[in-house]
Specification:
single chain, 431 residues, alpha/beta, 7-stranded mixed beta sheet, 15 strands, 43% helix, binds D-serine
């Protein structure tokens, strides 16, 4: 069985040249191996993507775009970027792609730059309702440079309310409406969002970072043909390297997007990361990956059922995607306490605000639980149901000081260790 070990993980030279950093990389690999990773935005990328990201392509400056560079010696690099573009366009069924953004945030910044002027009104879901920082939060460039008029979820259903969004859009007349979220467990109707945009003359920008893998495998409706522009990261459900992309079907917008990314926002592209993105686009088109996404979604339902059977409340009553948003206040616990107590039981989740939140974002009444990473390492629905039950067990067994009761903690630790041992990370040939 092939297992990445500390030396094999391309670190032989690093150990010789910088043992301090090499040791920390080893420690992080151990940490990833020894925890049930349920952060909905994380995953474990392919060995091939790790190798491409650690390759000599990092040495090359390639400002510009394929066949139009500001440096010599780009003949190989051009081929890499063209392959990445071709693959991602085919994957998502669109005509134009920019694969140079370094992250989802810079992809969104470039998209706004292409679609709006500074000071124009943008309308995204409020951060505390499940939106993203870059969708208009007042502490982010998107809320500082643009007039951000956030929409919220329906307070009763805890879901998107398209009538409410239309009502607000008619009032504030946004230049851009953003759809796509960080902590929303239900399907999004891009058609309804586009209808709203058409009624008020706005562009529809879809940030599909969380659900890109579901879209690629047709397990969630595609933002195309409804979105004017689509942004995404490549490291969440898509399981690639940490990075971003921008897609469109509109030739004029594609030109604006390219200008916004370079020279508007970035200098030289990270060619090693673009190569790693190409690797993940290749795998995302495979039958094996489609099966992985289906399992990820089934695992999200199973973990949700485990938490629900244990007494916790799922926001919206369930999930249609890769994550559950969970109300832990029913256990008289805070998200902060459950996050910290789960950590001690080798389960990694993040505290998260929930709709109608009463606590601060540092404390919160909820947690967000996602299954892309554990599914990559082979967790089954049975495993996930058990983990869900254990999370609930922890939440309902906190002492007054917020720590889990020692006997319960010990039991859950034992379960976690057994599951982690049975599903080793970077072992075998599955990725
Ligand atoms: N911070 C990411 C998340 O956890 O959803 C989004 O960028």
């Amino acid at each position: 069985m092939k297992v990445i070990n500390k030396i094999e993980n391309n670190l032989k030279n690093l150990h010789a040249q910088d043992p301090k950093i090499a040791k920390l990389v080893d420690q992080e690999l151990d940490r990833q191996r020894n925890s049930i990773e349920l952060i909905a935005s994380e995953n474990f990328t392919y060995r091939g993507a790790l190798e491409a990201a650690g390759s000599v392509l990092t040495n090359k400056y390639a400002e510009g775009y394929p066949d139009h560079r500001y440096y010599g010696g780009c003949e190989v690099i051009d081929k890499v970027e063209k392959i990445a573009i071709e693959r991602v366009c085919k994957l998502f069924g669109c005509k134009y792609a920019n694969v140079q953004p370094h992250s989802g945030s810079s992809a969104n910044l470039a998209a706004y730059h292409a679609l709006a002027n500074i000071g124009d009104t943008i309308m995204g879901l409020a951060l505390d309702n499940g939106g993203h920082l870059t969708h208009g939060s007042p502490v982010n460039f998107s809320g500082i440079y643009y007039d951000s008029q956030s929409y919220t979820l329906n307070k009763e259903t805890e879901q998107l309310d398209y009538d409410l969004i239309l009502k607000q859009a008619k009032k504030v007349k946004p230049k851009v409406i953003v759809a796509g979220y960080s902590a929303y467990p239900r399907k999004i109707s891009f058609k309804k969002m586009r209808d709203i945009c058409n009624k008020v003359g706005a562009y529809l920008l879809v940030d599909m970072a969380h659900i890109a893998g579901l879209v690629a495998t047709k397990q969630h409706p595609n933002p195309f043909p409804y979105a004017h522009v689509v942004t995404s990261t490549t490291h969440k459900t898509l399981r690639g390297p940490r990075s971003g992309i921008i897609l469109t079907n509109d030739k004029e917008l594609a030109k604006k997007i390219n200008k916004a990314v370079f020279p508007g926002l970035q200098g030289g592209p990270l060619m090693h990361i673009i190569a790693a993105k190409a690797v993940c686009f290749k795998y995302a088109a495979s039958a094996e990956y489609k099966n992985y996404i289906k399992k990820t979604m089934a695992n999200a339902k199973a973990i949700g059922k485990g938490m629900e059977d244990g007494g916790l409340r799922l926001i919206t009553g369930g999930t249609d995607n890769h994550l559950c948003l969970v109300d832990v206040s029913v256990a008289r616990a805070t998200g902060k306490q459950v996050e910290a107590a789960c950590d001690k039981a080798f389960i990694t989740v993040n505290k998260n605000t929930i709709p109608n939140e009463k606590l601060s974002p540092f404390v919160t009444s909820g947690i967000r639980v996602g299954t892309p990473a554990v599914t990559t390492r082979g967790f089954t629905e049975k495993d996930c149901y058990k983990v869900g039950q254990n999370i609930a067990k922890i939440a309902f067994n906190l002492n007054a000081n917020g720590n889990c009761k020692p006997a319960v903690l010990k039991e859950v630790q034992k379960d976690s260790k057994a599951m982690l041992k049975a599903r080793p990370l970077y072992a075998g040939s599955q990725y």
